[in-house]
Design a protein that fits this description.
By secondary structure, the chain is of the alpha+beta class. The chain folds into 3 domains: about 210 residues, Alpha-Beta Complex (Aldehyde Oxidoreductase, domain 3), CATH 3.90.1170; about 325 residues, Aldehyde Oxidoreductase, domain 4; about 150 residues, 2-Layer Sandwich (Aldehyde Oxidoreductase, domain 4). Helices cover about 30% and strands about 25% of the residues. The strands form 7 sheets. Strands 3-5-1-12-9-10-11-20 form an 8-stranded mixed beta sheet, with helices on both faces. Strands 7-15-14-13-8-30 form a 6-stranded mixed beta sheet, with helices on both faces. It is globular, with a radius of gyration of 27 Å. The chain starts with 5 loop residues before the first helix and ends in a 9-residue tail after the last helix. Bound molecules: ligand MTE, hypoxanthine and dioxothiomolybdenum(VI) ion (MOS). The site of dioxothiomolybdenum(VI) ion (MOS) has 11 residues, from loops.
Amino acid sequence: MKNIDAHNHVRGESVYLDDLPLQQGTLFACVFDAPHAHGKIKDIHLETALNMAGVAKIILAKDLCGENQIGGIIPDEPLLADGHVHFQGMPVALVLAESEETARAAVKTITVEIEPMEVITDPRVAFEKGELIIPPKRFCLGDVASAFKTCAYVFEGQANVNGQEHLYLETQGAYALPTEGGGLKIYASTQGPTAVQRAVSKVTGLPMHRIEVEIGRLGGGFGGKEDQANTWAALCAVGAQLTKRPVKYSLHRMEDMRMTGKRHPYSADYKIGLDQEFKIKAYEVVFYQNAGAAADLSPAVLERTLFHCTNSYFVPNVDATAYSCRTNLPPNTAFRGFGGPQGMFVIESAIVHAAEKLGVSPATIQQKNLLQPGDEFPYGQLAESEAVAAWKQADRQFNFEHLRRETADFNAENAYLKRGLALMPICFGISFTKTLMNQARALVHVYTDGSVAVSTGAVEMGQGVNTKMLQVAARTFSIPAEWVNVHTTNTLRIANTSPSAASATADLNGKATLLACEAILSRLKKVASEELFPQDDPAQHLEAIRVENGLVLYNNRPTALDWKALINAAFVKRISLSEHAHYATPGVHFDWTTAKGHPFAYHVYGIAAVGVTVDCLRGTYAVDFVKTVHDFGKSMNDAVDLGQIEGGIVQGLGWMTLEEVVYDASGRLRSNALSTYKIPDIYAVPKEIAVEPLQTDRPNLAIFNSKAVGEPPLMYGIGAYFAIREAVRAFCPEACPDFDAPFTPEKVMLSLHQLQAEYAD
Ligand code: MTE
Ligand code: HPA
Ligand code: MOS
């Protein structure tokens, strides 16, 4: 089945926040944001702006009716600066004007006097100064200290990995409308309807039942709108509350890049110990997460880094510690993989480090240490591992030895072009690591014409979840897809939503939709029995009745009833044609006092072979292929899932290669536009992406035995980093670049010629 949005997307007819028709009297918002990264506000000059024609109001922290607080996990983030600024881009004042142009022009006239304070941008410096967002988190398995003593080889090093700009096509924004009696209706571009509702409730002082949040669709979120959409919704809400007029804010790209947080950069120290056979016996790692100026989702991201710090390998002795370090950067946030990819980059670096020193291929070490079914993760859950199966299938289908030989032959024949090959196995846990978040709801109505409306807590952001929800309903009722419509996400229809995140949206909301449809269907079957056999006890016929392809079958033979007649009969009999269902993932739990539990419903496995060619004169490179065997379970929709794989891979490649977030020492974002921040374009995408589904029948907890697909493919992109490194070393065997992602062409150039890089400023 095609993605149900394809038709409208291609014709430009899909409706995003900025396409909504505006109500008369709408005011336009623009934020004046902090020009300094840290300091005390001495004075703020609003006079010129206030005197401009068309400026309706300027709102400061002191004007809020509710609390000046939007922190989700920890209440440490003011909506508007109050006394101090903590990062460049922090909202200080909200200007409301009759037009967008006026609002932006007014913002330009505002000045602020700030007494500067020390600016920290480096997480290790923050750590030294005790600037931690939360106490450290730690996972331990076995006994590393004694294990290291028995190791034949021990290697220590540092690995750094930078952040990433989300660059959703649709920038952040919201539209808030005052409703009768002092309530608010908020159109938001958010992954988290309830998160917005909560934040708006807090800053306005209104109870949640007075606030309706409505979401049509997002032009991408990638984690950047899990919590950070709250700011813009809350600002518009405050504006609407104080002016009693609709308020809209749709950020310009540079505002968005400057004011919002990104993927977390990490710096890490690792120590890896292997025995004679290259079995990893011990792994010790310390992560310094660059959280930015407030907690946002950093604590949860930090946890997922630990959950994935051994990737798809079994390590019997692990000691992993993670610090969330407060710096004067915009608060960093969720980004596809949610800290997992950063943890995986570090162990891959450690393995490559060991392999280079031992003179073996990294693949040798990787393969020997793959998780086997029943192996224990450092957090206590036992692996249902497909890691070996994926490796073996990929070797069969892509022939690793052949790929290696091709690479070596090419390198023997070419002086200035060098190829590199890396294998990147992945293992990604599916479920929110915070157990309570693993619940969802669906509301299904069957109308008297037989058509079906589905509402869930899922937010469509390009990942195709609405198509999957429609498939669940159409398949469960066995009716044509055209008879089902999936509606907007709205907090009045579906309350208390978890954000659409953790790759679990289709799993959770799909299961809830299934439960709702099944409940209606079981009532309908009883009606069918009563209609077909009015004299009998309905229970005796239920087994024989099925609804299939819009017909009612009895013992597999058509009856006089079809779907529409059945619906009509149920309505006449006053049987409910609606259902609101709730699903909670069974079996998941985690206890932070012991740092053990069973946090994930299941894991997604896979492996990619990544091949690159580096131009060793220019430092530029091309990704020749990414060949993957990926664990889809039983895919619900091949086209949607292939899109997720391709998109994820390219996003991961971008993170590892071209995309370089640069803040200077004053905390100013230098890569603040698409001219200075390079994302993959059509030339940067792999020449070939091969995707083979892992052949497996293993049952899992996901909808229709599919598996979550949103985030895991991003991590295949990590292979590109190590493939480039291999090509660099093919040209210059002494080269030993730092493990420091992304491997931009500039860094490749410097390492090819063993030049020292001075990046800092
Ligand atoms: N795909 C598109 N096109 N746009 C997005 O914003 N977000 C990713 C992934 N794929 C995203 C996407 C992220 S971060 C997650 S967690 C999942 O989709 C969320 O959707 P799912 O739970 O339905 O997979
Ligand atoms: N993944 C993604 N988003 C989240 C999570 C998670 O595990 N926990 C809270 N938000
Ligand atoms: Mo995705 S980072 O869980 O929104």
